[in-house]
Amino acid sequence: MNFDYDLIVIGAGSGGVRSARIAAGYGKKVVIFESSEVGGTCVIRGCVPKKLLVYASSFVKTFKSAKAFGWDFPSPKFSWEKLIANKDDEINRLNKIYLSLLSNSGVELVEHHASFIDKNTVVANGKEYTAERILIATGSTPFFPEIKGIEHAVSSNEALSLPTLPKEITVMGAGYIAVEFACIFNSLGVKVNLVYRGDKILRGFDDEVRSFAEEAYIKNGMNIILNSNIIEMKKLSGQYELLLDSDICLKNQDVVLCATGRIANTQNLGLENLNVNLKYNGQIEVDSEQNCGPNSVFAVGDVCNSDNLTPVAIKEGNLLMDRWYDKSNQYIEYGYLPSTVFSQPEIGSCGYTEEQAQEHFGDVKVFTSRFRAMKYAMTDIQDQTFMKLIVQKETDLVVGCHIVGVDAGEMIQGFAVAIKQGISKENLNKCIGIHPTSAEELVTMK
Fold first, then answer.
1. From CA 173, how far away is CA 262, in angstroms rounded?
2. Of 126, 132, 113, 118, which is closest to residue 23 (Cα–Cα)?
3. What are phi and psi of 438, to 5 degrees?
4. What is the DSSP secondary-structure string of 108-157?
5. Last residue of a domain, one of 224, 240, 260
6. Are 78 and 219 found together in one domain?
7. Is residue 172 domain-shared with residue 219, that is, in the same domain?
8. Dist. CA 199–CA 227, nearest whole Å
9. How far is 259 from 135, CA to CA, in rounded Å?
10. Are 51 and 73 in contact (CB under 8 A)?
11. Mean pLDDT, to the nearest integer, of 247-252?
12. Which of 227, 260, 293 represents a domain boundary (last residue)?
């Protein structure tokens, strides 16, 4: 058949844009569809703007500790409105960069929603487009549970652009998105309630990490309410009243942030016209070739994978294009993916939790350390750092590394490289630490 394009990409987030650019670089005719801003969740309404707010909130402790190091200055004043305006300017700048990347790569951009007619055809704004292959990279979107009055809640999308800084906020959920936003607002002086249905926050993380982080958040002033579900939201005079199934009533809430998870963006894609299978959360089932079922339809990123990380989507798309158009045989390796929760304190993780390691490997050795970072030694700030190494007893391989504390994200990236290459605890011990740093603790644990 004669097709209009070699490749159609639906969704101009990080994974879709990288895939389109790589394919175009191989001389293929590519069109990408996007009904919102180019850049996707990470750049427009996720990782990047959220990290800018994390930076803003982290200055509170910087100002507080500066006087112990000889700095004297008037009490600083904070403007939420100025922060949001500057954040928006930065996101607009990044959006323009993404638009330029597509244009300079020769990728055609159609700024409309696309949906499938068949396995080689999509329709957008009343026009049909055909391609030999179609890649779905539509990402994910916030999930709202069925609760009476839930329409009054905002998602992480809106939380990044609230018109004013609230005095009190309730965050529903206790995953990484929930605790990151809770910490941002808590550090900026907002009274924060974190409501979670389980008995411990950050499900899926190492148990000791979860306990340490929860302890730190509470010490920093956060009100964590466990074993509770919000069952009703009422709007009263511009504020909200929340009824919990644990007989708690939270009154005078300025904002209610729903951060109970995300679901795949597979609605209104016309997938009923294809032979594809969807998971419980709307994600598309794919095989090792990222194939959805029809031999011409593929997917990458949050819309299909279990590791909802921007670099994973980018790598999946890049390697898929290399296999198609450059005869590569390289596949993404999902083992030992490093990740960071940009809460305060930060959480950096790579590899197995202690619980997972015991189940997978059997006997393991565990090394932990808890200390106060030198950065706060002369201050009134009592924040501590927690580090944990998990070692397979039989092989002496380091199979897990977890850090909670200042710069955890920066530290875990380097150690993840070593763990990915199969470093043993013995060889880790042979490394000379950089003194004085927090990271040196990881090569001196006994």
1. 11
2. 132
3. -75, -35
4. EEE-S--EEEETTEEEETTEEEEEEEEEE---EEE-----BTGGG-B-HH
5. 260
6. no
7. yes
8. 5
9. 28
10. no
11. 97
12. 260
Average pLDDT value for residue range 207-219: 98
Measure the CA–CA gap between 148 and 384, rounded to whole angstroms: 40
Nearest 5°: phi and psi at 254? -80, -35
Residue 59's alpha-carbon distances to 65, 184, 206, 344, 355, in angstroms, are 10, 11, 28, 11, 35
* Dihedral pair phi/psi, residue 243, rounded to 5°: -105, 125
Cα dihedral 251/257/260/265 (nearest 10)? 150
Say yes or no: 252 and 172 in one domain: yes
Span 257-269, average pLDDT: 96
Looking at the fold, whether 71 and 174 belong to one and the same domain comes out as no
Is there a single domain that holds both residue 191 and residue 255? yes
Stated pTM of the model: 0.96
In which domain, by residue range, is 226 found?
150-260
The residue among 442, 425, 421 whose CA lies nearest residue 433 is 442
pLDDT value of position 1:
79
| 249 SS3 class | strand
| Spatial contact of 217 and 186, defined as CB atoms under 8 Å apart | yes
Q: What is the DSSP string of 76-94?
A: P---HHHHHHHHHHHHHHH
- The region, left, alpha or beta by phi > 0 then psi within -120 to 50, assigned to residue 362 is left
Asked if the structure places residue 333 within a domain, the reply is: no
Classify residue 47 by its DSSP letter. H
**Same domain, yes or no: 129 and 80:** yes
Residues 100 and 61 in one domain: yes
Q: What is the CATH number of the domain that holds 361?
A: 3.30.390.30
CATH number of the domain that residue 234 is part of: 3.50.50.60
pLDDT in tens, 355-393: 999 999 999 999 999 999 999 999 999 999 999 999 999
Q: Which pair of tokens denotes residue 246?
A: 């644990």
- In this model, does residue 45 exceed pLDDT 90? yes
Mean pLDDT of 317-333: 97
Instruction: Say if residue 225 is exposed, middle or buried (CB neighbours under 10 Å; 0-12, 13-18, 19+).
Output: middle
Helix (H) / strand (E) element for 398: namely strand 398-405
User: Known catalytic residues?
Assistant: 435
Count of the separate structural domains present in the chain = 3
Q: Do 256 and 269 belong to one domain?
A: no
Q: What does DSSP assign to residue 226?
A: -
**How, if at all, do strands 239-244 and 249-253 pair?**
antiparallel
**48, two tokens:** 């990047």
Q: What angle do CA 222, 223, 227 make, to 5 degrees?
A: 130
